Every structure is written in C-alpha cells, then in structure tokens.
C-alpha cells in the first residue's frame, strides 16, 4: 500500500483517486480515473489477492476490521455473484433487500465464527473486498498528508493530553490548541477482538484563536488521533498565512 501511494510523482494523484479507482475495479462506480490511480488500485488488489486465508485473517484483524465493514464486503461479494450468475430479479424490491441483507449477515457470522482454514471462496472474497477499500482509503490519506505543507509549530502538552502552540501571522499572535472533543464514543465492534484496541474512541479537534479575549475563533473536528488534529491545525495555519482563509 505504501508502495502504491509512493509510486507516482507528487501532484499526479489527488486524495480520493485510489479509492475511486478501487470502486471502479469492483464495479461499484462507473467513472474515468487517472491511469496512475488505477495502477495503484491494481497493485493493492494484487497484493491482497496473493494472501491465503490465514494471512487475510491476520491483515483483517490487524486493521481492526469491523462487522459493519465486513457486512459491506459481504454484500458487494454476493451482489457480484448474482450479476455473474444472471440471477432473475425478484418481484418485490423490499423483499429482495431484506433477503440480501440476511445473506450478507449470515456470511459475516460464518467468517467470524470459522477458522480461516475453513473459509470458502465467498468468505475469503468478502474479506478481500473490504480490505481493498480499507487499504485504498489509507493510501489516499497518505497522499493527502504527502501533498500538504504544514507549518511546523512548537507544541507543548497539558494535563488533559492536549497540546498548545502559538503562531504569529501578520503581526498578530494566534493561539493554537489541540484538545479532546466533548465526550467519547463507543469504539466500533471489531470482528475479532484485539488486545490493543480501546473500549472507547477518543475524538480530537483543533482550535485557533486571535485578538483580544480570543474574539476571532475557528475550530474543526473530529479527528481520530491527536497527531492527526495537530497536523490539520498546522495546515490551517499555513492556509491562514497564505491568505487562503481567515478566522
């Protein structure tokens, strides 16, 4: 995946291109995509396709694959099989949707409960399908980070786990904060438990303020990690300095 994201010169791909190409290859999107993004998507698919059931399981577990994500992969896999087999269209679309959802949920339960060595083709294909999307999304995140030019700030931590810094733009001092978003959300349920996964998901946001009594304030969130919020705040400072936005 790193190789797919780094195999093209800077500026050739835009964030979202690899995910779009992955959807086109899966038959979920009918659109023209840049040849370089299609090549990156193909590289991801070939990498995943080379994995046997045991390695697929290790990768899926390592990415904290959720039941919701796996249900999507199962639904896409079953729909693709119906299209290949030329299954007749049922009379009731409501009944069809219910049956399709039940079939996908059943496939998810079988994948979760069976050892990888007992997976059939449908089980492995469902896991592969969702891994294509996860790795393509991750490649797009890496592209976005590599294309950005954040202004490095001197950060200091506080007792809440947040961070603060300051930046002077046009002679005006701006205070920059990275802090926890209000409340914590339950972490999405992974298909296979992982000891390093937290029970709750902490969201983060950044806040930039300037002027007397912080009269001008802008903030944005939520981000899944403090590091991601800090990077986004530094990008925002860069945009402010370049005049591309204002508080």
Task: Characterise the protein shown here.
- A hairpin with a 2-residue loop joins strand 2 (163-169) and strand 3.
- The chain has a five-stranded antiparallel beta sheet with strand order 1-2-3-6-7, with helices on one face. A two-stranded antiparallel sheet has the order 4-5.
- By secondary structure, the protein is an alpha+beta fold.
- The protein is elongated, with a radius of gyration of 22 Å.
- It is built from eight helices and seven strands.
- The model has no long low-confidence stretch (mean pLDDT 84).
Q: Layout of helices and strands, plus pairs?
A:
Elements (H helix, E strand, L loop, with lengths): L1 H5 L10 H9 L9 H15 L3 H10 L4 H19 L7 H21 L7 H27 L8 E2 L5 E7 L2 E9 L4 E2 L13 E2 L2 E7 L5 E8 L2 H16 L6
Antiparallel strand pairs: 1-2, 2-3, 3-6, 4-5, 6-7
Helix pairs in contact: 2-3, 2-7, 3-7, 4-7, 5-6, 5-7, 6-7
Our measurement of the CA-to-CA distance between the termini, rounded to an integer number of angstroms, reads: 37 Å
Task: Work out the helix count.
Answer: 8
The count of strands amounts to 7
Principal-axes geometry comes out as: elongated
Outline:
The protein has 247 residues and is of the alpha+beta class. Helix content is 49%, strand content 15%.
Q: What tags apply to this protein structure?
A:
7 strands, 247 residues, 49% helix, elongated, two-stranded antiparallel sheet, alpha+beta, five-stranded antiparallel sheet
């Amino acid at each position: 995946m790193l190789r797919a994201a780094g195999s093209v010169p800077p500026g050739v791909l835009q964030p979202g291109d690899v995910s779009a190409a992955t959807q086109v290859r899966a038959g979920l999107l009918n659109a023209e995509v840049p040849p370089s993004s299609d090549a990156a998507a193909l590289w991801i698919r070939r990498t995943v396709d080379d994995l046997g059931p045991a390695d697929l399981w290790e990768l899926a577990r390592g990415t904290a694959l959720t039941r919701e994500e796996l249900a999507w992969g199962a639904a896409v896999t079953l729909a693709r099989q119906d299209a290949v087999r030329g299954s007749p269209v049922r009379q009731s679309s409501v009944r069809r949707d219910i049956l399709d959802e039940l079939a996908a949920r059943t496939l998810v339960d079988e994948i979760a409960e069976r050892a990888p060595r007992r997976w059939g083709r449908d089980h492995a294909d469902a896991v592969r399908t969702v891994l294509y999307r996860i790795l393509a999304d991750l490649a797009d995140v890496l592209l976005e980070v590599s294309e950005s030019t954040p202004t490095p700030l001197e950060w200091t931590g506080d007792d809440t786990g947040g961070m603060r810094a300051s930046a002077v733009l046009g002679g005006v001092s701006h205070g920059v904060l990275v802090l926890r978003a209000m409340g914590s959300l339950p972490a999405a349920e992974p298909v296979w438990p992982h000891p390093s996964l937290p029970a709750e998901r902490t969201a983060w946001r950044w806040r930039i303020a300037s002027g007397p009594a912080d009269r001008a304030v802008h903030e944005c969130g939520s981000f899944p990690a403090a590091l991601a919020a800090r990077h986004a705040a530094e990008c925002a400072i860069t945009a402010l300095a370049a005049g591309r936005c204002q508080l």
